[in-house]
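note to self — DONT lose this again. spent like an hour looking for the file last time. sequence + predicted structure for the chain T wanted, 282 res
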Amino acid sequence: MTELVRTREELAKARGALTGTVGVVMTMGALHAGHETLLRAARERADHVLVTIFVNPLQFGPNEDFDRYPRTLADDLEVCRQAGADLVFAPDRDEMYPDGEPRVRVDPGVLAGDLEGLSRPGFFHGVLTVVLKLFQLTRPDLAFFGEKDYQQLTLVRRMARDFDVPVEVVGVPTVREPDGLALSSRNRYLSARERQSALALSAALRAGEEAADRGLDAGAVLAAAHRAFAADAPEVELDYLALTDEELEPGPVAGPARLLVAARVGATRLIDNTAIQLAPRS
């Protein structure tokens, strides 16, 4: 039985009744198969699964899609029930921010200044602020985040370490459609033609993976990814295509690495990434 709570007081009472390990899955709703994978991962490792559903206004810029972001609570609750979640916390804006937008926010540091941070100033301040608040409210032992939002996952891990938050942050691999498109709540905004064009993102990542598998160096891997993107994306606007180490640090890369891409398909902005293994520098 999945219990829905809407206030801090209700959450505190329901959370206090849970014994054993608690895993949390933080979402903005509009749950899809990718979220179901997070829920299954939490179910496998934790005695109880707690889901948060909150469309966080702090992480939307002035020209982004806060108002049209899908809100499908009834459907989301059914997904949680089917996945075996014990508790769903779905507060409204006033419940999360009773004094209005917080004057004190988490500073994500230099790691947030590149990639998504360049295109979405202030985004990670909003993400980390709400994640830290939800860590405090839900008091989980484990927290499950998808690798599709890899920069977010990396920053949440770093915040938990730097702030001594007693939670294990678990990354869960990206879930894809059969044709390779990464699942995202924003995919529903795509027209049929845009949906086809969006495959340029995963095509670029596959090209980079194949180049790395052939033992090519970082420059050649990135060049192969750019060629594949340009070939498949005449109507898609590239934001970035970057190759970093696992911790998203800049500089020469060898060994375990991450290839990341972001692009705008029509009015919809999509991101994706993949892990690759680069040959050691000679």
